[in-house]
Design a protein that fits this description.
Helices cover 42% and strands 17% of the residues. It contains 25 helices and 19 strands. Helix 11 packs across helix 25 and helix 23 packs across helix 25 (595-611). The relative contact order is 0.12.
């Protein structure tokens, strides 16, 4: 994994002032150094500059970027972030067509594949990626992002200049860009956050390449967005038995493919069915090579004393982790986060995202990834299975199923509870959220054979893939890459997503068992008690002392007349909120973000506005 950045201007000649623009490119990749601490490079031509910071996973000695290849009068350059899991097959195909390779890295596979197939190469890639390609002869820049949006790619157009990067922080170093926030951005933070509208960059004028799309910009062509992949809806004709077998094959093949690495891999193991399946397949493959899998689990200091079971989090992970670690015979590491680390990482989390994030759900993951990265560069996770196979409550709870809004935030009142009345009126939050929801629902790929209930299931699945899953993928990318750790997500394989998308709910949750299709496909790989364990999401602390620390920080903000978040808050409302007991079972986003996380989110908003010196327009 890596960080990419650069700029393109259809009229400007960067080489005339090469020293100045090279320095900007260097600054950009320095801002992304945490994503790629092993190597860095720049490439500057008349209309375009590319910058790259590298985390070496494949072909440790080769693979320097930006990479340039020539054939005849044609020259193309690439800056790439990601991992291609079918690179071996693509390499063979290109070699049969006469292409010669100088490295064993997948970067060259993409670049030569683009020179052979053009933008169509994106359809042929199985992997996670964001890359920029400069076609020098045609004076064209291409920005591509993988179908599921695992890897990020932001951009902004200032006058005739297109500036892009893996993360906003690199774009913000460019002299033409200022960190500003308008009403739309404020609604993204307060009404939608920590999710984001697909394609929104939150900062004024900033956008993100959407999953399954690419952006083109050239000397004779205006900025254009193009779709190269999208979900297709059609009747599912496979029998239940064949569906189970197909899912089993796809999942296991995806996991094995994503084990490719020239450095040791590990897995995150929560004791749930998703991460346990990933770990089981990895452990079995490594045993064939005489190797032992390293696994990591996460929890909080003294959480066994403070844990409070609720409808969203029915059980603790540790007993199941212990069973799985013994079953796999893995080299297991129990990692714990304390209150001080979790509080401290709230601001680091903002630096990792360049935005307020999932509060302590994010900061704790940032801490855990920093610990894993001390011994490993690559990990496989169980992320995304719930969105794809229907694991969340809103897939099967009637009130969520019927809600004509995002089912993970059905009630906006907790979001407004601490805001000033005039700010609430200015935002028109309900209108903003309703428009985003309705627009997204309208984009749902339809199937004529669906009845009303199955059509609604498809809408909820679409919302989960395009919104909720994207939030968790953003979290996994930023928290891992902040410490130079590459986190892979086998369940987000485009083949799995496309196949399961059309499987009817009666198969996905047969006999009323949540995610039963995935569980049945894992038969024989896991102990039954783990395979059919009731879902319990990512752990969070229930230590009352943690909440007290948060309240102390909020009180300090209230006393600080210069705290930027105060322009949005009603102090009297905040003070009253601090005196109320927290309701851990009433989340305002997803399943985990309740009262304490609302306080932590406000702390992140304040830190974000301070660190980035954001102006509200």
């Amino acid at each position: 994994m890596c960080g990419i950045a650069g700029f393109y201007h259809r009229e400007k000649d960067y080489e005339k002032d090469g020293t100045y623009y090279r320095s900007i490119l260097v600054t950009m990749h320095q801002k992304l150094q945490r994503r790629g601490p092993d190597d860095a490079g720049i490439y500057l031509k008349e209309h375009c500059g590319l910058s790259h910071s590298r985390l070496s996973i494949i072909d440790l000695c080769g693979g320097h970027q930006p990479m340039v290849r020539k054939k005849g009068q044609r020259t193309c350059a690439i800056a790439y972030n990601g991992e291609i899991y079918n690179a071996k097959e693509l390499r063979q195909d290109l070699q049969e067509k006469g292409w010669k390779f100088e490295t064993t890295c997948d970067t060259e596979v993409i670049l030569l594949g683009f020179m052979e197939y053009g933008p169509e190469i994106a359809v042929r890639l199985n992997g996670i990626f964001a890359f920029a390609i400069l076609e020098e002869r045609e004076h064209m820049l291409y920005l591509f992002r993988d179908p599921m949006g695992v890897k990020p790619l932001f951009y902004i157009k200032k006058d005739h200049e297109l500036i892009f990067a893996s993360e906003p922080k690199a774009i913000l170093t460019h002299p033409a860009v200022n960190p500003e926030l308008d009403r739309e951005g404020l609604n993204e933070i307060f009404g939608i956050g920590p999710a984001r509208t697909p394609g929104a960059g939150v900062f004024r004028g900033m956008k993100e390449v959407r999953p399954g799309e690419y952006v083109t910009y050239g000397k004779k062509r205006a900025l254009q967005r193009k779709t190269y992949w999208k979900l297709e809806s059609h009747p599912h004709n496979d029998s239940y038995e064949r569906t189970i077998d197909t899912v089993s094959q796809l999942v296991q093949d995806s996991i094995r493919r994503q084990m490719v690495s020239d450095v040791p891999i590990c897995t995150f193991l929560s004791g749930g069915v998703d991460s346990s399946l990933v770990s089981a397949v990895c452990a079995a493959e490594l045993k064939k090579q005489g190797k032992q899998l390293a696994t990591f689990s996460f929890d909080f200091v003294d959480n066994q004393k403070n844990f409070k079971a609720n409808a969203f989090q029915p059980s603790q992970d540790r007993p199941y982790v212990e069973k799985m670690a013994a079953y796999l015979e893995s080299d297991h590491h129990f990692l714990e986060c304390d209150n001080a680390s979790q509080i401290e990482m709230l601001c680091d989390s903002v630096k990792a995202h360049d935005l307020p994030a999932m509060a302590d759900v994010d900061s704790s993951m940032l801490y855990f990834c920093s610990q894993v990265s001390k011994t490993h560069k690559v990990t496989l996770t169980g992320e995304c299975a719930d969105e794809i196979f229907g694991g969340y409550p809103w897939f099967h709870r009637e009130e969520c199923f019927q809600a004509q809004t995002f089912p993970w935030t059905m009630d906006l009142s907790p979001r407004k509870e601490l805001l000033a009345d005039d700010f609430i009126e200015y935002l028109r939050m309900d209108e903003y959220v309703r428009e985003r929801y309705q627009r997204s629902i309208a984009e749902t790929p339809r199937c004529e054979d669906d009845g009303p209930e199955e059509a609604r299931r498809r809408e909820i699945s679409w919302l989960n893939l395009k919104w909720f899953m994207q939030t968790l993928l953003n979290r996994m990318d930023r928290t891992s890459m902040y410490s130079g750790l590459e986190a892979r997500v086998p369940f987000a394989d485009v083949r799995i997503v496309q196949y399961v998308w059309n499987v009817p709910w009666e198969m996905k949750a047969k006999d009323g068992v949540v995610k039963n299709l995935l569980r049945q496909s894992g038969k024989g790989l896991l102990p039954e008690e783990v395979l059919f364990r009731r879902k319990s999401p990512y752990p969070k602390t229930y230590d009352p002392q943690y909440e007290n620390l948060l309240k102390g920080k909020i009180r300090k903000l209230l006393e600080d007349g210069n705290a930027p978040v105060l322009q949005f808050l009603d102090k009297a409302k905040v003070k009253a909120f601090l005196e109320k007991p927290s309701d851990y079972g009433r989340p305002w986003y997803g399943q985990l973000m309740a009262g304490p996380q609302l306080l932590a989110y406000l702390i992140q908003i304040n830190a974000w506005m301070e660190q980035y010196e954001i102006k509200v327009r």
